[in-house]
Amino acid sequence: MNKALSRILSVSLMLVCGQVVAWTNHTLVSHELVSSMPHFKNTKPVKAESLVSFLMSNEQAIADLLEKDEVWMSQNLWHYNPRPQALAFQVTGNKEDVIQRFTRATRMNPNTRFALYIQGMPGSQQHGEKLSPALVSVFKDHGHLNSVPMQALTAGQLVSPIDVVVSANDEPDHGHDIGLFTDSGTDYGLEYGFGKQPFGNPNLEYGTQAPFHMGFYHEPSILYALGGFLKETYPQMRVHQFKRLAELAFARGHDYWGYRFMGWGLHYIGDFSNPYHATPVPGNSALSTIWLGILGVLGFEAPQKEAVQLVSNRHTVLEDFQNAVMSRAYTEQNHQHVTIKSLMVDKPVMDYSEQSMIDVFAKTSYEKADQIDEVLVQSLPFDYVQNPNVEYSELGALPTIEQTVHDHAGQQGYNKLVSSVSDLLGDFSSHGASYINDILKAKPE
């Protein structure tokens, strides 16, 4: 029975976690955070540098760092499948394959784009050569990249550290973690040592990144007993890797890559400000989730499918609403909007530790999951968040989502949903600032 129930729970999560983009455009949630920090208000522009140049200038240091980190991660992470030794970063002096050696050693998608560019904010004007989204994203569907300003940079060109971090903060959603499992249908997935994909929908273009962008660290022990796959998550690995690389880059005078790696790691922390990335079924108790699994084992699959559909719809609605509200605010240059102001770093920042990802970031979001789920139910029409026979993403609701909330819940209900989103963004602000400040300790004065 336990084995069958575990399988049913796993299948449920394969569907629930198909939607794995926490915030549709991470530049929206990182710009005010970064630009309000004292360090960035007083920092001079840095010279853009190709990844090849950075890697070749620091081959031995990178090899040493990644080897030490492999030992540390094997001993300290919540869950970790060790990197095969054949993938270790080797110092060869060959610039032709150095990016391949790097992506293999860090177990990233080798097709990841590493273009030099700036991703602008909605309503902003970019100067210089426009960059094609195909040079940033590995996906066929470029999503929001089609509607935001994208400016190409050249090596040596001066660029604001704020622009580097904020642009980089969106990058992990453009392919870093795609196809990394043995059942992903990729050659590199067979080599990387992560095993089969534990959850997420591998049939969706974004689906294979789920275990790297979600983490279920605070579920009742009975759920882990029935579904051990819940522990097979890797965001803590990515935050550690990119934090350490940022620190190395700063310490060795490669500030552009210090800020870019910083932005990559900040992405995963941002994911954890969305409760749908910190618990598999917000609004459901452990017993309810187990009961759905039991019904599935007994052949009654409809309740399970309905629950999965509702979670997926609410997850997507939350992202659409946040995206619409903040895009409009930035387009209108309304920097006093509550969502933007909630991201300002204007209070003392907590000290960062390796356990912060689990003990603070994920836990805070987990504890707010049921609350945000309830607010969504109150704020939106039945078909959007309570009808399991509707696929929300097929409604084309994004262009009118704000007006829909107004019509359904009135100004008070609209304000409540905006306030709830702002509260989540405020958590990201304090957590992200903690991470950034700790990295900056490695930067020489």
- Helix and strand content put the structural class at mainly alpha
Give average pLDDT, whole number: 89
Unreliable stretches, pLDDT < 50, 5 or more residues? none
Distance between the termini: 61 Å
Whole-number radius of gyration? 21 Å
Strand order of the largest sheet: 1-4
Key structural traits:
two-stranded antiparallel sheet; 445 residues
Can you walk me through this structure?
There is one protein chain. With 445 residues, the protein is mainly α. Helix content is 53%, strand content 2%. The protein has 19 helices and 4 strands. The strands form 2 sheets. The protein has a two-stranded antiparallel sheet with strand order 1-4. A two-stranded antiparallel ribbon has the order 2-3. α5 runs antiparallel to α11. The protein is globular, with a radius of gyration of 21 Å. It starts with a helix and ends in a 5-residue tail after the last helix.
Helix and strand arrangement:
Elements: H1 2-16, H2 26-35, H3 38-41, E1 46-47, H4 51-57, H5 59-76, H6 98-106, E2 117-119, E3 150-152, E4 158-159, H7 161-169, H8 187-191, H9 210-213, H10 221-226, H11 235-251, H12 255-271, H13 286-297, H14 302-331, H15 338-341, H16 356-367, H17 369-379, H18 382-385, H19 401-440
Antiparallel strand pairs: 1-4, 2-3
Helix pairs in contact: 1-13, 1-14, 2-7, 2-19, 5-11, 7-12, 11-12, 12-19, 13-14, 14-19, 16-19, 17-19
Quick overview:
This protein has 445 residues and is mainly α.
